[in-house]
Specification:
It comes from Acinetobacter faecalis. The protein has 369 residues and is α+β, with helices and mostly antiparallel strands. The protein is built from 10 helices and 12 strands. Helices cover 41% and strands 25% of the residues. It binds adenosine-5'-diphosphate and magnesium ion.
Length: 369
């Protein structure tokens, strides 16, 4: 049977990653697609009829956007602007955009079609790709070192046990015990450097369930001395994920937050320590250079002193730690697990507000690597 080849063009336009605006002859917005809604953080309903200059022109811009648009409208002459500044929610972002006339029926006034490409996102993608690559090289190095450490440990342990048995003297037992305990400590460390060897088993998971597990673990551990606020969007869809691994990720991040709070008591002289667990749907997220239409976002926020500034950029790298007793493995392992889920972790941190956000795409993440 022939496949029906009629296409709903509205659907097509709404699924484009490019932001598209249509403007009428009064330079008012006539239509915008979903990507454009996301770019300007405005809904179609609110935007229609508004002057497009409100979106496309910032006062500091010397370029006369109004004249250029009117000119294009009159003459049909297309034009392109590179690295134009637009303002979204009081934040400057940079876009390339091209303007062309859309003459869809002789009897109607023409419309202007404006296609916008944010360049900040592209800058961000290449930065992100770079980070991921460096991260992978570092992880391989770490795994190599961990294997080299682990291999002789079994031999040392076995030999020490034999030695203890053949000496059979409590005087020496103290020393052989020290060797065995230290070897065991090293082995645990090497294991955590290697990360989990189990292949993840993905199943449909409601992320609130592991999150609640972690919340009650932390509440018990801290004897309820830290306030934990829940701010959940209970309508979140289920995602394909390995539940135990998600718990590990949330625990690693939660433990860091708890440590940042309990190890810096002087920071809390005039306010209460607090953790916030938040869940949301996030639209249009770029993860590992793939643009996802929507993702589940899980925030673990604390009001501690924040990630030390000198390690903020490299905080997900293995062996980067800001604590005397830290190993610097927690976040690296967590980020690795999230990559295996086609997701990622992001961090933003200033003193008093640190947020680690986990992103899990939910439309396509069951094809996880
Ligand atoms: N919520 C947080 N607040 C302040 N600093 C943090 C937070 N989370 C992580 N960090 C910093 O990031 C470092 C790396 O964390 P991690 O990879 O888990 O290794 P470790 O906990 O062993 O040091 C921590 O040592 C700490 O300095
Ligand atoms: Mg840690």
């Amino acid at each position: 049977m022939d496949q029906d080849s009629t296409i709903d063009y509205r659907l097509l336009v709404d699924n484009l990653a490019t932001a598209i605006l249509l403007v009428d002859s009064n330079l008012n917005i006539f239509y915008l697609n979903s990507s454009c809604e996301a770019l300007f953080d405005i809904s179609l309903l609110r935007a229609v009829g508004q002057p497009v200059l409100n979106l496309l022109h910032v006062p500091s811009d010397e370029f006369n956007t109004e004249e250029a648009l009117n000119n294009s409208m009159r003459t049909g002459q297309p034009y392109t602007r590179r690295e134009a500044t637009i303002s979204v929610n009081f934040k400057d972002i940079h876009v390339d955009y091209s303007v062309s006339q859309l003459n869809y029926a002789k009897s109607y006034h023409p419309l202007l079609l404006i296609e916008l490409n944010p360049i900040d996102r592209m800058l961000k993608i290449s930065k992100e790709e770079n980070l991921i690559q460096q991260h992978q090289v570092a992880r391989q190095l770490i795994r190599g070192v961990a294997h080299e450490i682990k291999n002789p440990l079994a031999g040392i342990r076995g030999a020490t046990q034999l030695l203890a048995r053949s000496l059979n003297d409590p005087q020496y037992a103290e020393f052989t015990d020290i060797i065995i305990n230290e070897v065991d400590r090293l082995r645990t460390l090497a294991d955590s450097m290697l990360g989990s060897r189990l292949l993840p088993s993905y199943e449909l998971t409601n992320v609130h369930e592991p999150l609640e597990r972690v919340r009650s673990l932390i509440a018990n551990q801290t004897k309820k001395k830290i306030k934990i606020t829940r701010d959940y969007d209970l309508s979140l869809p289920e995602v394909f994920a390995d539940r135990d691994q998600l718990i590990q990720v949330m625990l690693n991040i939660g433990a860091n937050a708890v440590q940042a709070i309990t190890e810096n008591k002087e920071f809390f002289v005039d306010h209460q320590p607090e953790l916030i667990f938040r869940t949301r749907i996030q639209r249009l997220v770029t993860i590992n250079s793939v643009l996802n239409r929507s993702a589940v976002r899980i925030d673990i926020e604390d009001n501690g002193p924040g990630v030390p500034e000198d390690i903020l950029e490299s905080v997900f790298y293995p062996l980067v730690t800001g604590r005397a007793k830290g190993t610097g493995l927690g976040l690296s392992i967590a980020q690795n697990i999230m990559h295996q889920h086609n997701g990622m972790i992001e961090c933003q941190s200033v003193p008093g507000k640190t947020i680690f956000s986990l992103y899990l795409p939910w439309e396509s993440n069951h094809v996880a690597k």
